[in-house]
Design brief:
Elements lengths: L3 H11 L9 E3 L16 E3 L7 H13 L10 E3 L7 H8 L17 H7 L9 E3 L1
Parallel strand pairs: 1-2
Antiparallel strand pairs: 3-4
């Protein structure tokens, strides 16, 4: 929540109010004197902020699913400094059956990570889709 004011401009580059659907997930409320900008996605606060980022991401996916959103085929997660090209993202994801499991991704830019985890391991980088 504390870094959103410095990072929101990345999301506002691709977020289309009344067209794009989603949330910014925060670890705490923004604060009593902070007004949430209409140009940003609505926010949610994770019910149980976890210490590990992997636990936090799994929890956010679960809580996102529990929102009961209609006609959602994919949950896409990205870092707060990730810029999505939503039309391209929708075009690529529409080629896949959302009821099936896929493992799609690219190698890390870090040779050390590739050596440690294997060259056939996809890395999250700027985001992922479930």
């Amino acid at each position: 929540a504390k870094t959103w004011k410095d990072r929101k401009h990345y999301t506002e580059l691709w977020w289309e109010p009344n067209s794009t659907r989603g949330f910014v997930w925060l670890d705490e409320e923004p604060g009593p004197n902070v007004s949430w900008p209409e140009t940003s996605p609505p926010y949610r606060v994770s019910a149980v902020p976890a210490l590990k980022s992997s636990d936090r991401m799994a929890r956010i996916l679960k809580e996102g699913f529990e929102q009961g959103l209609r006609e959602v085929r994919w949950f896409v997660m990205g870092d707060d400094d990730t810029v999505f090209f939503t039309h391209n993202l929708v075009s690529v994801l529409s080629k896949y059956d959302h009821r099936q499991m896929y493992y799609i991704g690219g190698s890390s830019e870090s040779v050390e990570q590739d050596t440690m985890h294997g060259y056939d391991t996809a890395f999250g980088g700027g985001g992922f889709a479930v």
